[in-house]
# Entry
Amino acid sequence: RDETAEITLRFFHFTRQQQSGLSAGTRLLCYGDVRQGPRGYEIVHPEYRRLSGSDPAPVRDRLTPVYPSTEGVTQPRLRKLTDHALDNALDDLPDLIPARFLDGLGFPDLHEALRTVHRPPKGMALETLLSGTHPARKRMAIEEILAWYLGLRRMREAGQQREAYPLTADGPLREGFLRRLPFELTPGQRQAIEQLDADLVRNVPMMRLLQGDVGCGKTVVIAAAVLAAVQSGRQAAVMAPTELLAEQHMRTLSEWLAPLGVRLAWLAGGMSRSERRVFEAELAGGDAQLAIGTHALFQEGVRYRSLGLVVVDEQHRFGVHQRLSLVEKGSVGGQAPHQLVTTATPIPRSLAMTFYAGLDISSIRDMPPGREPVNTVLISQERRHEVIERVAAACGAGRQAYWVCPLIEESDYIDSQAAEPTHRELSEALPGIRVGLLHGRATPSERDRVMGEFAAGRLGVLVATTVIEVGVDIPKASLMIVEDAERLGLAQLHQLRGRVGRGADLSHCVLMYRSPLSAMARERLNTMRNTNDGFEIARKDLELRGAGEILGVRQTGALQFRVADLVRDGDLAEPAQRIADEMLSTNGSEVTQLIRRWVGEGGRYAGV
# Structure
């Protein structure tokens, strides 16, 4: 207690040393979270230090920093280490960004920035430091973004030093393919194909990202690139993140390319040993011109005779080492294959400038003609019976519906609708309508059978988990129901909605939710209701979730920033790019030192 009030200090592990040091009458300076306890205010396990004499508690000339918890290292220990480094090593730390490059940005030099962040003065506007908007934090953030950008640019330049076999698009295969297509290419598709053709004809490896919304027609562009490889006497490999998506590519590309004489090979997870040996022999001997599969395409035993093109679909779902492995498999005699990576999760420009600094970017912004936007509505679980009636009406009119559930079976721990009981419920509620069931535990043959029946129109409703986020195009499917939509992210909801709206009928997406909704969940669902634009949805997703979640970097190990945040610090991408251009033109030693300081060895793989 002091002269104003008293508070309880609560310790659950009270050592003998603490007992002797905290005897009655001892004066303390304490820090911790104050909460209401059974006997008034209390602090559990406070930080404290003993005060000597009767002098008033000293007020420091600066604020006390609190660092992220590190197991086994206390806050006092962290502060002691930081103070020691600032007092003894700061003068030896070089400021690697020449001052002229930061002119006009209003940032302090590195030494002042570090002192401000670790020893903020008492009068500082603390909210600017905590929010990351203070010039000192911005100075550190731009250095980190710059280091990553330099690392990716260096890696890109190293890739350009390697040779690739030039692939030409001109010839009867491409002409026959375009002539047989039952639709006209959109301007966006034509532009993307032209950009790829210009890259492929060169003797340096193409490194290009193709991004476009769900249903914009990226597969046609992939097919055009594959034909350039085949026509030039080289093999191509298309790698997808899931077997379901790989199967869709196999079906679509077979339909387009097999009539032209292209020999395709499919590597499925359920293959027998003898079937796999046949696949491996076809690839190694060059009989197979196009290989399609999942990450199994780069496993031991798979050899390519002359791999000229690697296509990685939905690339952000792969670990960087997986992507690197497939490229390395195709590198023979100093020649590397061309690379095309695709994503249906459009990346906002500020993010793309940093994360994809090693790639050229093609964007398809338009949709095939005649495709109507999907009408999206939000409906509470309390109105479930109305949704079932709506499904019955749609099926009665000859259309089909998806009904998506987050779980396969009911859980005691998660209050969420499950696919198996929903399948039973709808089978009883919709007499005369066949209801199918599909989930991640289904075997490939079961999945093929169910999807085949749905595609043939023999099923009116398909109850599924989010496994159908990517899948077969069903033109008659015009209704998408998503249970517990508040549990799913924007990108996943947009992918699910993209399963409908592929035919002539106006399509609808019903997002069912449980009340009460959190503020973030409500904002996500309102975004889905208000727009069908994948680029706008990606921007909002970035704002709500941050770059790490969108790009999958928690899994891939790439771009794990320590200070910078690509949402908050998106305004630094352009100045970082400008500084990188100037620093690379002088080729000074600071470039290598910056990369080593912030990125280390992990940056070797970051843009593969």
Observations:
- Residues 135-161 form the longest helix (27 residues).
- Residues 14 and 368 are 70 Å apart (CA to CA).
- The chain is about 40% helix and 15% strand.
- The radius of gyration is 29 Å.
